[in-house]
Amino acid sequence: MNLTIKKYSLEDASDLRRIFLESRREAFFWADPEHFDLADFDLATRHEEILVAIATGSPVGFIAWWPPENFIHSLFVDPAFMGKGIGKLLLNACLLELGRPATLKCLQANSNAIGFYKAMGWEITGAGESDEGDYFKLTLR
């Protein structure tokens, strides 16, 4: 599969809204899927930098971060494209633009994502509570 990474543009919005909705409904099995909405993407990524993974001419994933704090807020891949290295490619592209230490929060119930980040060299450096549930803070130095 030929993958490219590009900066977000408004033409990507409808595809990324769908990816954000579908991937959360699938991955966040503990949450009520009726609480997720297409408009959540716009709220979650407002004022953030976004990179988009493109395969076969269409977006298949994205990563969004807040540069002033080197904080990765969102990393989502279309469920139909999981397991193809897209998340790793997006994360590495983002890390080229971030200073260190870089941080993120990951819900503790999302064990697949926690395993992914740990395999990529991230360390759990804290924990907390949010409206969505308990989370780990992860750091890459």
From TrEMBL:
<protein>
    <submittedName>
        <fullName>Ribosomal protein S18 acetylase RimI</fullName>
    </submittedName>
</protein>
<feature type="domain" description="N-acetyltransferase">
    <location>
        <begin position="3"/>
        <end position="141"/>
    </location>
</feature>
<dbReference type="InterPro" id="IPR000182">
    <property type="entry name" value="GNAT_dom"/>
</dbReference>
<keyword id="KW-0012">Acyltransferase</keyword>
<keyword id="KW-0689">Ribosomal protein</keyword>
<dbReference type="GO" id="GO:0016747">
    <property type="term" value="F:acyltransferase activity, transferring groups other than amino-acyl groups"/>
</dbReference>
<dbReference type="InterPro" id="IPR050832">
    <property type="entry name" value="Bact_Acetyltransf"/>
</dbReference>
<dbReference type="InterPro" id="IPR016181">
    <property type="entry name" value="Acyl_CoA_acyltransferase"/>
</dbReference>
<keyword id="KW-0808">Transferase</keyword>
<keyword id="KW-0687">Ribonucleoprotein</keyword>
<dbReference type="Pfam" id="PF00583">
    <property type="entry name" value="Acetyltransf_1"/>
</dbReference>
<dbReference type="GO" id="GO:0005840">
    <property type="term" value="C:ribosome"/>
</dbReference>
